Amino acid sequence: MPSETILTNARIVLEDGILDGTVVLREGRIAAIDGGRASLGEDMEGDYLIPGLVELHTDHLESHYSPRPGVTWDSIAALQAHDAQVATSGITTVFDCLRLGSDEEGGFERGEMRAIADAIETAGAEDRLRASHLIHLRCEVSAANVLDHFEDFRDDPQVRLASLMDHAPGQRQFQTMETYTLYYKTKSGRTDEEFARFTERRIAESERYSALHRRALAEACGERHIAIASHDDATLEHVAESEAFGVSIAEFPTSIEAANASHAAGMAVLMGAPNIVRGKSHSGNISAKALAEAGVLDVLSSDYVPFSLMQAPFVLADLDPALGLPAAIRMVTATPARAVGLADRGRIATGLRADLVRVRRPSGVPVVRSVWREGRRVA
User: Fold this and answer.
1) Which regions of 287-341 does DSSP assign to beta strands (E)?
2) Does an H or E element contain 377, and which?
3) Most exposed: 114, 166, 239, 240, by fewest CB within 10 Å?
4) What is the distance in angstroms between the CA of the first residue and the CA of the last residue of the chain?
5) Residues 184, 188, 193: CA angle, nearest 5 degrees
6) CA–CA distance, 63 with 129 (Å, rounded to integer)
7) For residues 97 and 77, what is the distance between their CA atoms, to the nearest angstrom?
8) How does pLDDT run along the chain (379 residues), one tens digit per residue?
9) CA separation for the pair 107, 338 (Å, rounded)
10) How large is the C-alpha radius of gyration of the chain?
11) Which residues share a beta bridge with 300?
12) Are 69 and 289 in contact, with CB atoms under 8 Å apart?
């Protein structure tokens, strides 16, 4: 890696504005930011230069590890495929979601997620990866085995975020049986009798375990300084509970009341970038666009489409010119980085990590042209 890289003739997207100028990278850090064009360096041809995207919630790795029902792939190969798509989408820091606790038949066995975490560590040590990978534990609090699964990660320094979820019928995301039936009956092909048994079991598990496990996991994360996210909070009571547990990120609130209360309590409200691109929620809940219009949308996540994290800020800026591109870009860079305590990235500022993305947008969908992670060209 060259000791110094000069990127000039760029539209540099700072936290609070856009500067036409030059960025100097040295020893993996941003060494200087100047207005005007340098006589030396790589010509950005007037393209945007934005901070590397920070992705807090993506299930994308899981789809590579288990691409078909009953099929699992080599974990290193799955990780590399995931990493390549993430990096070329402009994501330089990604929190890979690993699911703890089986909430339905056919869930992952204890040890599978631990093996994937080991693969992430090994791949990083062997310099196989383009992006920086950290771990987000998606903890299904209504599952009987979630605490057992969590034990496999209790001392893993890769874990920097945990979300507390309850996907049982009547809870949070699935407050009506109509939406729950779509997810767990229609898509699984269960008969009416099988579905009735399944929902009865899930409701009983939620009643027995959710409150106990939510508290235990929140306490364990607090002891280890792991950031905590709520998931699908729907009511003011849910938000008050999350606040009491020290939650810093409100993932996918399902009502405007919950989003408003979470934002007012100082939690970073996170919604899906696909929701912005599509203009609606795939599960019929509140739209991210409505939260943006209300001024309570703080963070975007690609969730299940990696490139949506690059596309969504441009869509938002188009929809609301008063918001502006720098504020929209903050939702995928500076704000998520701060929400999980990563003070060394997410902004173009001297002394920070040289995580940068060159983006061209002649119209419509933006094009990622180059990606640097810690000053090293990775895509």
Assistant:
1) 299-301
2) strand 376-377
3) 240
4) 14
5) 75
6) 18
7) 17
8) 458 999 999 999 999 999 999 999 999 999 999 999 999 999 999 999 999 999 999 999 989 999 988 899 999 999 999 999 999 999 999 999 999 987 554 457 778 899 999 999 999 999 999 999 999 999 999 999 999 999 999 889 999 999 999 867 665 555 555 656 655 555 556 777 777 777 778 788 888 999 999 999 999 999 999 999 999 899 999 999 999 999 999 999 989 999 999 999 999 999 999 999 998 665 557 889 999 999 999 999 999 999 999 999 999 999 999 999 999 999 999 999 999 999 999 999 999 999 999 999 999 999 999 999 999 999 9
9) 33
10) 21
11) 271
12) no
- The beta-strand segments (E) located in 36-191 are 42-43, 48-51, 53-58, 91-100, 132-140, 159-165
Upper half-sphere CA count for residue 16 (Cβ side, 13 Å):
0
* C-alpha to C-alpha distances, 48 to 151, 316, 365, 368, nearest whole angstrom: 44, 16, 14, 10
Q: Could you give the CA distance from residue 340 to residue 323 in angstroms, rounded to a whole number?
A: 24
Q: What phi and psi, each to the nearest 5 degrees, are found at residue 183?
A: -75, -45
CA distance 310 to 295: 20
For residue 173, how many other CB atoms are within 10 A of its CB? Answer: 21
Q: Angle formed by the axes of helices 236-244 and 256-264, to 10°?
A: 30
* Cα gap 253→258, rounded to integer Å: 6
Q: What count of other Cβ atoms lies within 10 Å of the Cβ of residue 6?
A: 19
Among 218, 236, 235, CA closest to 227: 218
Domains along the chain? 1-51+345-379 (2.30.40.10), 53-344 (3.20.20.140)
pLDDT of residue 196: 76
Q: Rounded CA gap, 200 and 177, in Å? A: 12
Of 302, 297, 339, whose CA–CA distance to 59 is shortest? Answer: 302
Q: Name the one residue in this structure whose structure tokens are 């938000």.
A: 239
Identify the three-state secondary structure at position 58.
strand
8-state DSSP, 365: S
